[in-house]
Design brief:
Elements lengths: L3 H8 L12 E7 L4 E11 L5 E11 L2 H14 L4 H5 L3 H7 L8 H24 L2
Antiparallel strand pairs: 1-2, 2-3
Helix pairs in contact: 1-2, 2-5, 4-5
Length: 130
């Protein structure tokens, strides 16, 4: 059912955990399948002064595909500008994993939405501090 790359990210997920002083947090869930994802981001600046995802972690309660897409998302977003990270599409994560079964594509959508919410949370908090 799952390809080797998906299984690797499920069995040895990257960037799993919590960022206690996260700059942004996004939580999403799908009540139908029971998957819940929480994405934490730390925002820093690159040499050009652009805001980047300097650190990213996740907590996911769900199936193998949910954990694998969370793991892949963190690899894809880390070090990118907020704008670039925000452009990681719903299917980009699944494609980077080498594909997911049709019934599990919603996991890629959840990961995308979790990151979008974390970035939005950061932007809302930043406005309050200005």
């Amino acid at each position: 059912m799952y390809n080797e790359k998906v299984l690797k990210h499920f069995q040895n997920p990257h960037n799993q955990g919590v960022i206690k002083d996260a700059d942004g947090v996004g939580q999403v869930g799908n009540p139908v399948c029971g998957d819940i994802m929480k994405i934490y981001i730390k925002v820093g600046k690159n040499k050009k002064g652009q805001e980047i995802v300097s650190d990213i972690k996740f907590e996911t309660l769900g199936c193998g595909a949910a954990i694998a897409t969370s793991s892949m998302l963190t690899d894809m977003a880390k070090g990118k500008t907020l704008e670039e990270a925000g452009k990681i599409g719903k299917l980009d994560i699944a494609n980077e994993l080498g594909g997911l079964p049709q019934a599990k594509l919603h996991c890629s959508v959840l990961a995308h939405e979790g990151l979008a919410k974390a970035i939005e949370d950061y932007k809302q908090k930043s406005k309050k501090h200005k």
